[in-house]
Write a structure and sequence with these properties.
Layout lengths: L13 H13 L2 H8 L3 H15 L4 E3 L4 E3 L1 H28 L4 E7 L1 H18 L3 E7 L13 E5 L8 E8 L1 E5 L1 H5 L16 E3 L7 E6 L2 E6 L4 E3 L2 H9 L5 E4 L4 H5 L4 E3 L8 E7 L6 H24 L1
Parallel strand pairs: 3-4, 3-5, 8-11
Antiparallel strand pairs: 1-2, 5-14, 6-14, 7-12, 7-13, 9-10
Helix pairs in contact: 1-2, 1-3, 1-4
């Protein structure tokens, strides 16, 4: 039987309750301290104070692992929705009292910002004139706490267990080329026909250049070769537009070219496995301006994906 939480011996700090949730979410004190930008000793002391106030242990601790006690798990399940509701109310009151305002620092890659964020961010600041956007562009993954980043937008699988992820889109990649380039080739109906194409290769850290194609439940793995390679997707897109060959490109990155018939799909029924795009934050309940931005981008990307799908 789970140990119950007795009547607290003193008033419980709301801040300590938030710290408790952060440690539970992070799965440990070190990760939570990094996320919160607090010394581990301070965080541990605050949690100990909470446990003393509640008169019950919330965490099992050993040298390698921290986990919730049965009482801690029950407390967490009851506390999280209550704290979320409190934060939502705070955000709504703040939003109503003063329009969405302040600085939003965004970290992402230069390619993604140039090809996908210029228009949505312009629309967002026009809608919220008291917002100022600062873009931190890098191909490397930045430390959100150290660099004081509010939100990072990343493509691919996530490895940062100490961040909160907000799904924005599942982005498939397809083979694209210009109509002029394809006009000089025999019709292509199957991935095996791609051998007659010149591939524009996006170089990665792996030496083998493989192309994974999927059609419903059918998967084909092809080795690709080409006489033009680059480690920058923007360059690959420019080469493709210059009639240099066929490229595997996330469709969201070339939505304008698709809608304007600059690019046409090659083997339109085939695509690569979808790439997840997430917005990452250090807070479970980010400020209203951050949440508004994430919701806005999610809606914009979904609309773009619909337009691309209808046009192909």
């Amino acid at each position: 039987m789970a140990q119950g939480i007795s009547h607290p011996s003193k008033q419980v700090s709301l801040d300590n309750l938030q710290l408790f949730i952060a440690v539970a979410d992070a799965g440990g004190f070190s990760r939570a301290a990094e996320r919160l930008d607090l010394p581990v000793a301070t965080l541990s002391r605050r949690i100990a104070s909470l446990e003393k106030g509640l008169n019950v242990p919330l965490f099992k601790r050993n040298t390698r692992h921290v986990s919730l006690t049965p009482a801690g798990e029950a407390f967490y399940q009851q506390l999280v929705p209550a704290m979320d509701a409190v934060q939502a109310s705070v955000n709504e009151v703040t939003d109503a009292a003063s329009s969405i305002q302040g600085v939003i620092r965004i970290a992402t890659t230069a390619d993604f910002a140039r090809l996908n964020l210029a228009q949505p961010l312009t629309q967002f600041v026009q809608k919220h004139p008291n917002i100022r956007i600062e873009l931190h562009l890098s191909s490397n993954r930045v430390d959100l706490v150290k660099e004081q980043i509010d939100v990072a937008i990343r493509m691919g699988d996530l490895s940062d267990s100490n961040l909160y992820a907000w799904p924005l889109l599942q982005m498939p990649s397809k083979l694209y080329a210009t109509p002029s380039y394809l006009a000089g080739l025999p019709p292509m109906r199957h991935p095996n026909d791609l051998k007659q194409c010149n591939f524009l290769v996006l170089r990665t850290n792996t030496q083998r250049q493989q192309l994974m194609l999927q059609r419903e439940q059918e998967l084909i793995d092809l080795r690709i070769e080409g006489n033009l390679q680059a480690n920058d997707m923007g360059v690959i897109i420019s080469l493709c537009a210059a009639n240099a060959g066929v490229a595997m490109i996330p469709e969201l990155l070339v939505h304008k070219e698709i809608l304007n018939d600059v690019f046409v799909p090659v083997l339109p029924d085939w695509h690569s496995p979808a790439i997840p795009i997430h917005a990452l934050t250090t807070a479970r309940n980010p400020p209203a301006r951050i949440k508004h931005l994430i919701d806005f981008l999610k809606a914009e990307f979904a609309e773009l994906a619909k337009k691309c799908a209808k046009h192909q």
